Amino acid sequence: MTKFLGLDLGGTNIKIAVIEKISDKWQIIKEEDVSSEAQHGPQHVVDRLANLAKENQQQFPDLAAVGVAVPGVFNADGTIELFPNLPGPWKGFQALEPIRKATNLPTAMINDARAFTLAEAIMGAALGKKTVACYVIGTGVGGGVVIDGKIHMGATRGAGEIAHQIVKADGPMCGCGTQGCAEPLTNSAAIAKLAGTKTAEEAYKNAVAGDAKALAAFKEVGFWIAIALTNIMAVLAPDTIVIGGGVAQSGDILLNEIRAEMNKRANLFPKSAINVVPATLGFYAGSIGAALNGAITAGAQLSLISTT
If pLDDT is split at 50, 70 and 90, which confidence band does 83 have? Predict the structure, then answer.
């Protein structure tokens, strides 16, 4: 069977997944993570990724392609533009070619949130759905859109940044340089600040215990997410909207707030069309999506609704 490798680079870990397609169904045959050793700088990290690709090629001789998910912005040739959460001089660093040379296989790079979206659309919470949008809550807020089994990248190759909609014109400044984006209103820091806790996870535990301040925090954050996702409904009318990130996987407190507010606001559609669900693939979603993107590069058919 032909296999595909995905490497998901994070500030702490590199997540590794190997997948293959058996009888029209994608299967995960390996999941592993290692330290990214990001403190040693770009060259060390890219060498580490290249070595991991080579090691997995040796382990799986029928490996057909490699996909790499990265936490930032890059050019079409794999030159890094912005890695906000990794130390070192990444801007202008060529990160793709050394990984490709390590295996001489088709190798593709994708933003980590887009990888997450692709994974959940093809193998996760939105399996079999035609149009999928994802909203991934963490230190930042990532997003993505999949249409007919393909990541929608747009003319700029950067489409899918759902959290960079302006939802509150006089809202806080966003890290992207724009005022009023959904991201600073809905990220994990916003949840913790509103709840009066150190972390978003602590806020969730307090909310489960009935703490009024924590419950109010999730109500407010859910409100702003619902504004952003109601806009997405109006533009794309996705079959499924997937919510990811640590807090989003903890239970229905946040999701129920999102659903309730969207039911008030998304009046162009029947309420049954609003399908907001938690992600299902967990820690390795980014690496699975990276592997799927590698498969696209190698010409694999991702799903029964996709011709790629």
Answer: confident
